[in-house]
Amino acid sequence: MSWVTLRENTHTAPISYYMRNFSLIGILITLALIAYMAKGMLAPHVSHDPNDRSTVEYWVSHDSDRDVMLSYCNNHPDQQGSDDCKLAMAAQTQLDTGAAQRNMGQGNTTGVTQGTSNAADQLEAQKDANNLP
User: Fold this and answer.
1) 27 with 54, same domain?
2) Nearest Cα to Cα of residue 72 among 61, 58, 88
3) Average pLDDT of 13-36?
4) 91 and 60 in contact (C-beta within 8 Å)?
5) Residues with Cβ < 8 Å from 62, sequence gap 6 or more?
6) Within-domain flag for 130
7) Is residue 4 part of a domain?
8) Domain limits at 28?
9) How many domains does the chain have?
10) Which has fewest Cβ within 10 Å: 73, 76, 96, 111?
11) What is the pLDDT, as a whole number, of residue 3?
12) CA 57 – CA 119 distance, rounded (Å)
């Protein structure tokens, strides 16, 4: 046996094996980093500041500010595309639709429907006639 033969029989992995594993790990780490950054950029920013004017909730809860902004937007049609005008209009729309839905939800609380209102009127008239001296 020669020295060359002994060296050939050692079990050392070739460099390409290590480089392949290193490149796979590097690619996985890079993909994980990109996914983490993309998740942060694609998620909407949520503000919990009650005085953050960039949310519809601010404009819903601040009546005087909303009224002033809506008045300004109505007097300046060229500014109606601004963020504040859009948010104030969206808040007013939300309030208007919420009030309309509440009114529809209450419905008729007297127990008399439109179809039986004549009967209710006649009953009331009869009660009134009975109470006459």
Assistant:
1) no
2) 88
3) 80
4) yes
5) none
6) no
7) no
8) 15-44
9) 2
10) 111
11) 47
12) 47
